[in-house]
């Protein structure tokens, strides 16, 4: 299956500079998103790895030209970044504080994302969110203890915390100019990528 030479994937495969630049911009939208802030020192290497994978797949004609090439590129970038996060976690898992109450299953990758968000928005967050962030992330208090301290139901403490996390995420996305990041999640239907989604569970 030969790709249309006028399509973005065909032009990229042929080495056209404009197509190459567009693909790099699509990749950058993923690698510079707040959830992958921890990988900022690896972005250049990750970008090259994503480009290598895309080219390899195109040469082997693994991409279905009926699909959206932008989503395809960004899904490869997303999966490549996630692999890097997992490698980091395997090395540093023992150094991470336990989040949530004892016995509660909290996704370790989500925990890393939440800690990154908290560190970046603590100074600009509303006072109520700052208090929740400090208690949950830095004092490592469980939901029941937070609710007791703030004199509110446990469910209210949970929902307020995750509303704050969602606002923090959107704030960082806006500052990074990453307007397509949420659209990427929607198109790829990737679970667990937005902190705010847990609030409805």
Mean pLDDT over the residues? 75
Helix content: 55-70%
Q: Determine the number of helices (DSSP H or I, runs of at least 4 residues).
A: 9
Q: Into which percentage range does the β-strand content fall?
A: under 5%
What's the CATH H-level superfamily name of the largest domain? Winged helix-like DNA-binding domain superfamily/Winged helix DNA-binding domain
Helix/strand order = HHHHHHHHH
Spans where pLDDT lies below 50 across 5 or more residues: 94-106, 176-201
Number of domains: 2
Task: Please identify, by name, the CATH architecture of the largest domain.
Answer: Orthogonal Bundle
* Secondary structural class: mainly alpha
How large, in whole angstroms, is the Cα Rg? 20 Å
Biggest sheet character? none
Instruction: Give the termini separation.
Output: 44 Å
3D structure, described in words:
- With 201 residues, this protein is an all-alpha fold.
- It folds into two domains: 8-93, Rna Polymerase Sigma Factor, Chain: A; 101-195, Winged helix-like DNA-binding domain superfamily/Winged helix DNA-binding domain (Arc Repressor Mutant, subunit A).
- It contains nine helices and no strands.
- It has helices at residues 8-13, 17-31, 43-59, 69-92, 108-121, 127-138, 143-150, 154-176, 181-188.
- The protein is elongated, with a radius of gyration of 20 Å.
- The chain starts with 7 loop residues before the first helix and ends in a 13-residue tail after the last helix.
- The model is unreliable at 94-106 and 176-201 (pLDDT under 50).
């Amino acid at each position: 299956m030969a790709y249309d030479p006028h399509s973005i994937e065909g032009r990229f495969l042929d080495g056209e500079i404009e197509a190459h630049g567009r693909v790099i911009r699509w990749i950058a939208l993923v690698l510079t998103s707040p959830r992958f802030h921890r990988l900022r020192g690896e972005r250049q290497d990750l970008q090259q790895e994503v480009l290598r994978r895309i080219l390899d797949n195109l040469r082997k004609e693994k991409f279905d030209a009926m699909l959206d090439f932008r989503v395809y590129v960004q899904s490869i970038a997303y999966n490549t970044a996630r692999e890097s996060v997992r490698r980091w976690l395997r090395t540093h898992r023992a150094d991470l504080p336990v989040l949530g109450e004892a016995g509660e299953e909290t996704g370790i990758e989500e925990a890393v994302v939440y800690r990154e968000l908290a560190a970046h928005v603590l100074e600009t967050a509303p006072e109520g969110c700052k208090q929740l962030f400090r208690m949950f992330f830095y004092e490592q208090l469980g939901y029941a203890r937070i609710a007791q301290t703030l004199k509110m139901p446990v469910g209210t403490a949970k929902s307020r915390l995750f509303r704050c996390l969602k606002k923090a995420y959107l704030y960082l996305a806006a500052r990074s100019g990453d307007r397509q990041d949420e659209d990427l999640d929607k198109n790829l239907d990737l679970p667990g990528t937005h902190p705010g989604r847990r609030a409805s569970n």
